[in-house]
Specification:
Blueprint: E1 10-15, H1 19-24, E2 32-36, H2 46-57, E3 66-70, H3 79-88, E4 93-96, H4 102-114, E5 122-127, H5 130-134, H6 136-141, E6 150-155, H7 157-164, H8 176-188, E7 192-195, H9 204-217, E8 221-224, H10 230-236, H11 241-255, E9 264-267, E10 270-273, H12 274-290
Parallel strand pairs: 1-2, 1-8, 2-3, 3-4, 4-5, 5-6, 6-7, 7-8
Antiparallel strand pairs: 9-10
The chain binds coenzyme A and magnesium ion (MG).
Residues 12-15, 18, 20-21, 24, 36, 39-40, 197, 225-227 line the site of coenzyme A.
Length: 292
Amino acid sequence: MTQTYRPRRSVLYVPASNEKALAKIATLDCDGVIVDLEDAVAPADKVAARDRLAAVFAGRADRRREMIVRVNALSSEWGADDLRAAAACEPDAILLPKVNTPRDVLEAGDLLDDAFVPDSVKLWAMIETPRALLNIGAIAELGRDPASRLDCFVAGTNDLVKDTGVLATPDRRYLVPWLMQMVLAARAGGLDMIDGVSNDFRDLDGFARQCAEAAAMGFDGKTLIHPAQIEAANRAFAPTPEAVAEARLVVEAFAQPGNAGKGVIALNGRMVERLHLAQAEKLLAKVAAIGA
Ligand code: COA
Ligand code: MG
């Protein structure tokens, strides 16, 4: 479960096989980076990409940005070695692809425990297969047990489209029911939920629209494939100035001596309950963490 708020508005995939892109990381204003050993790396480059991980993490100074490694599936020929190499870098998290069942997460956790990898190294799970969607409640439940290390779900929309045969449309109308199910399950498990990528990295208007929709659906942020997408994601998943102003009003109202101990108050003609206070405090903590 996420203890303190970590912004995950913009989480950029960087192929571990692309030296030029890796060199750019330090200059980018994204909340997180996923160094990818899986789908972005061709089979012939897998081993060289894995060997590059240590250099990517060497002298890592900026702890503000989360650094995650996406390994190949443990069932693949590269998975076990990827997991070992990733763990040795002590990233913020290791992202497991093609998770189908809770067992897939537990197995990876057991391997990390057996290798005495610090608890600070979390597990993230891609939700990108039909089986993961059918088992999502049970997978999310692991988030309630810190020993599982599970901390975050990432939607894998390209794989879902491929495996289900739904049509990918700009408004994602056939994916939305599954995306909403992911958000619900993540909340039930106390996990963060990051949306899938948008492949059309030159269409920034369409991208901004998709981010706004994802924020409305309850996602914490979006995975990105290109630096040009960072700014729109950071904007869309940050609270709006109106929401911040409203949250401050709610906190101030409950802080007034006359309202001490009250469960419900009236504010500008609206009912405001203590649950709204909790919501407002959470939003302001988020704003503080983002530094906006
Ligand atoms: N991370 C860091 N830097 C990136 C980047 C990324 N994901 N994608 C592009 N860049 C850099 C390029 O290296 C280039 O740098 P330069 O200005 O120093 O030359 C700059 O941003 C502009 O890139 P551009 O020419 O517009 O794109 P491209 O043709 O080089 O790359 C992709 C396009 C799609 C191949 C590339 O963005 C990419 O590999 N994205 C990630 C894909 C991925 O990880 N997929 C798996 C998860 S879905
Ligand atoms: Mg995938």
